[in-house]
Design brief:
The chain folds into two domains: about 150 residues, Alpha-Beta Complex (Aspartate Aminotransferase, domain 1), CATH 3.90.1150; about 220 residues, Type I PLP-dependent aspartate aminotransferase-like (Major domain) (Aspartate Aminotransferase, domain 2, 3-Layer(aba) Sandwich). It is built from 14 helices and 13 strands. The strands form three sheets. It has a seven-stranded mixed beta sheet, sandwiched between helices. It has a four-stranded antiparallel beta sheet with strand order 9-10-13-12. Strands 1-11 form a two-stranded parallel sheet. Helix 5 links the parallel strand 3 and strand 4. Helix 4 packs parallel to helix 5, helix 4 packs across helix 8 and helix 12 packs parallel to helix 14. The protein starts with 20 loop residues before the first helix and ends with a helix.
């Protein structure tokens, strides 16, 4: 018998369990006729959140201009709109030449790491992280080194520990703010300390800010680039979350800070962007309207807004449960929930998620799939309506009461 075709060795350390085996099993259950409540992915359109009408109209009106390839960095109106947003936030020295439009932030993360890393280079990644970051580092011949953002410290970075991880092969540090999966929002003091580390050790800041306007209560989002004048900073954002346009696949990456030391890096990104020709053109025509128009996200995240109120239902249900606890999420669209210590050694996050799916038909993401050293958390999205959230927590409490 002939040897089977093997996958690439680069996949050995790559995982993305948010759409992994559990999600596949949920799909199989749906094919058998079961109704599954899927809370594993932050996909606003599936929960009735609509893309603003003005963005759809902007795409429709420009479809005739969207048929050819565009410039590898993206159409000029979209890149210029991103520049204007950066300037409004107090980020100077950026032109359209430093802006890259991609097929979502996911593609740009991959391109930027491919342009930056040599085999064996290290990237500091938060734990918990959004697992695409770890996967993209590994796929581009790098090594992810994890810094702790523990629940005991409100999922905030431990700057002293981060510095202890910096070595001769450290090329970059990933900062996810507001954070997915924890919902933490970082204050100015921590961000300034991270910038100081980057400047001191000459490492690149990779600022994942896709949830930049999605903050609650008294939390304040501070763009990393506003603090990083003397470091090389890449800011990642896009239309998918704040503008509820996941399917448009439009993200952007902005180079700022010490651009004199980033020219080769920028040229590398230009080469890689050219090799993939260009990103989705129709969706790019929505960027100028999105960034320059009415910011409907502000109504959704304030008290009385749908995102705020649904998050509040999650907060209340976790507080009422004898089996759950969590740090109150101050940003993004997720809750990172801890199982009570009474389940330690008896029920880990993966077993819990499996049983919840099979017995109660609710799909969640195990916390350890976000590269944590502990296995007692799970993540849900806070996007469903209040009635659905209450049904979910009724089912969770029912399952856990049987296991307590």
């Amino acid at each position: 018998m002939e040897d089977r075709i093997q996958t690439s060795e680069t996949l050995r350390h790559v995982k993305y369990e948010i759409r992994g085996q559990l999600a596949n099993h949920a799909f199989e259950l749906e094919k058998r006729g079961y109704e599954i409540i899927s809370l594993n992915i932050g996909n606003p359109g599936l929960f009735g959140f609509r893309t603003p009408e003005t963005m759809r109209l902007a795409m429709i009106e420009n479809l005739s201009q969207a048929e050819p390839y565009c410039h590898q960095k993206g159409i000029f109106p979209a890149r210029e709109a991103v520049v204007m947003q950066q300037q409004d936030r107090g980020i100077h020295g950026v032109s359209a030449e430093e802006v890259f439009i991609g097929n979502g932030v996911s593609e740009l993360i991959d391109l930027s790491l491919r342009a930056l890393l040599n085999p064996g280079d290290e990237v500091l990644v938060p734990s918990p992280d959004y697992p695409l970051w770890s996967a993209a580092v590994s796929l581009n011949s790098g090594i992810p080194r994890y810094y702790d953002c523990t629940p005991q410290h409100g999922f905030q970075p431990d700057v002293a520990q981060i510095e202890s991880l910096i070595g001769a092969h450290t090329k970059a540090i990933v900062v996810i703010n507001p954070n997915n999966p924890s919902g933490a929002v970082y204050g100015q003091d921590i961000l300034e300390q991270l910038v100081a580390l980057a400047e001191k050790h000459n490492i690149v800041l990779l600022a994942d800010e896709i949830y930049d306007q999605m903050v609650y209560d008294d939390a304040k989002f501070i763009p990393m680039a506003t603090l990083a004048d003397d470091a090389v900073c890449l800011t990642f954002s896009g239309l998918s979350k704040v503008y509820r346009a996941c399917g448009y696949r439009v993200g952007w990456c902005v180079f700022s800070g010490d651009l004199d030391h980033a020219q080769e890096f920028v040229h590398g990104m230009e080469l890689l962007a050219a090799l993939r020709l260009c990103s989705n053109v129709p969706g790019q025509w929505a960027v100028q309207t999105a960034l320059g128009g009415f910011q409907s996200i502000e109504e959704l995240v304030r008290p009385g807004g749908r995102l705020y109120q649904q998050r509040q239902v999650v907060v209340e249900r976790v507080a009422e449960s004898p089996y759950l606890s969590m740090q109150r999420p101050m940003g993004a669209m997720y809750a990172f929930i801890k199982l009570d210590d009474c389940f330690a050694g008896n029920l880990d996050d993966r077993t819990f998620a499996q049983e919840l799916l099979e017995e109660k038909h609710v799909l969640v993401a195990p916390g350890s799939s976000f590269n944590t050293p502990y296995s007692d958390h799970f993540r849900i999205t806070t996007l469903p309506d209040a009635d659905t959230i209450n049904i979910v927590f009724d089912r969770i409490d029912s399952l856990l009461s049987q296991r307590a």
